[in-house]
């Protein structure tokens, strides 16, 4: 005996909880990460101001003046602490990999095709982003990433530390947070397209947070688009290869090419 199908409204209502739950969990992951980043930023800056005061042994100047003083090493340490610690904590707490997932990831990482896809993605993203920036600069729009000054200063004074940070550490913890935790949750729920868009948007917001006195609107839109598409590409190669190591490798290669371009004095 055939079952009478539910009316469309009732079918949508029945499907809504299962469709919305992974999205809500992904948004909760991002909210937890943002709260942890803000808290750790405050703790770091308060600790930095206190350390300077004790080190100099004099009367403390105004706190706002203190907050402008961290150098390259301190800023890199702050970035690793503020973003890396929440990423690792959320991975272990909210999206840990079981033994089967780890074994599958390692098997996929051992395939040469995985690294071919990772290399193609890293090079392709860098080439597209560099080409887009060069094109809009010809139109009179100057798009300067907010972290460019730190990267250039580190390249001059701490090149080895910059390579460790940009090519090793940042790709590891950023891919854990945006691709494993955020994208991976929606991918596992059968919503990979939504996961790519959400993880790409969050990736863009982390690198270019909105705020007064920043980029002109056209430059801001270009940087958001570039970072967003970059995040989508890294999620795509993760899904295509079945291992997060491919996304980490593509991200690391992109950053390495960016550092090399700055070192050689070329756009990018």
From TrEMBL:
Keywords: Membrane, Transmembrane, Transmembrane helix. It comes from the Bacteria. InterPro entries: CAAX_protease, Rce1/LyrA-like_dom. The chain crosses the membrane at residues 30-52, 72-93, 114-136, 156-174, 186-206, 218-237, 244-265. GO terms for biological process: CAAX-box protein maturation. Pfam families: Rce1-like (PF02517). One of its GO terms (molecular function) is endopeptidase activity. Residues 158-257 form the CAAX prenyl protease 2/Lysostaphin resistance protein A-like domain. PANTHER family: CAAX AMINO TERMINAL PROTEASE FAMILY PROTEIN, SLR1288 PROTEIN. This is Membrane protein. It comes from Vulcaniibacterium thermophilum.
